[in-house]
Amino acid sequence: MSVTTDALNFVGRGLASGALGNIGGQAMGFVLDEIFGGGGDDSAIAKLGDQLNQIESMIQELLKELSEDFSTIEKQLAEIKQEQLY
Question: Which of 36, 44, 52, 80 is most buried (CB neighbours < 10 A)?
Answer without folding.
Answer: 52
